[in-house]
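Hi support team,

I submitted a single chain yesterday and got back a structure, but I'm not sure I'm reading the token output correctly. Could someone confirm the output below corresponds to the sequence I sent? I've pasted both exactly as they appear in my results page.

Thanks,
R.
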Amino acid sequence: LDPARPGVEDLLDQITSGVRSSFTYVGARTVPEFAERAVVGVQSSAGYDEGRPLPAGW
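Hi R., thanks for writing in. Yes, this is the structure output for that exact sequence:
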């Protein structure tokens, strides 16, 4: 085990909080509601880089 890496419990907490946030974002209370309302998009690496914060202000 690498002490510098998070444990299984920490990873599960991160995954759970991400799923919870996704449900909240689309306003879903159940998995079928989530599947109906969620829209999944694919983002290119260029789009990801463009969305990152700038190192300095304008």
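A quick pointer for reading it: Residues 8-26 form the longest helix (19 residues). Let us know if anything else looks off.

Best,
Support desk
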